[in-house]
Structure prediction request, 338 residues.
Amino acid sequence: MVKAARSFLLVVLGATFAAALAGSGLLWPQASAAQQVGRLPMDLVAMFPKDIGEFAYADLRSARRYAWFPQLREQLTPSRFKQFEQFLASVGLDPANQVHEAAWALVPPTETTGEQIVGIAVGSFSPESTEANFRQLKLPVVEHRGFRLYAYGSGAGPQDIFFFFLDSTTAAFGHRNLVEQLIEVRYGAAEGLLRNDQMFPLIHELNGRGLVWAVLDRTYTQVAMKQLVPEAAQFPEASRIAAKVQYMTILVNADRDVNTQFHAVCANTEDANLLAATLQAGLLYRRYQAQQANQGELVQLLDAIRITPRGERLELLMALNQDLLQALLRRNLFLPTL
Prediction:
């Protein structure tokens, strides 16, 4: 389910993140005046636990307006998430129409636990009728501060996901301990994301500016950097700098093009400049490979990427027009797991 939830983000930006540089390709202009994107209310952001590794948001209602979205989503959504959607449909929920926005947080694995997730879905729900269906199916249930948490699974497994309604417009899901932390934050009994001095300012910076956006802490940034700069392993100095990148932000918008922006927050200007040079070298090499293999669409995709150091940040931009996106989709370019 963790991979499934992350695929919500990959559904929209995975095209660029998968094809270029063996795992990346992103951009970020401001949302156009014609494009209206959602903004997650601050009280919902504040409910998330303080200590997380990644926070992401998707304006699904806006994304569904684009003809390319269903096919891209189909290619990138893991089977387990499709099974979860089928489960929700079986109890009277229609995620495709009832869920308007989604936000989720990931916590990296430890020595004793795997990666964990907690998230919310914003939309229009009928909690009473849905919970009646849950009871009819005799789903495992636990109670916490008056909320009934229903399990997708046995309710006892370490990877089981729990689901419950906060109210008629907000549902929550995730691993039990994180879902219970979310409730504790709501009641003021635990520290929430507003207390995370490093990630919250970046979340505030992105909120309301994109169709999909994400903020990654150092742990998740390092995983992304290994995909983004695989060539860095060949250059000790570049590898050292990539390992020092502390945070990453990703912002995706769509109008006539699908526009993505990636920012890596480096330690200083010199590091940002060197990392930009490494990325540009890798981009040229990847383009050469694509050209030799007669992959014309991929060459166009790589040509659309712009890499620019901006002070202590490295910015990577790309605009993918809908004709090129449709051509890439027809080739099933995005089927490999990211």
Remarks:
- The two ends are 15 Å apart (CA to CA).
- Residues 2-330 form one domain.
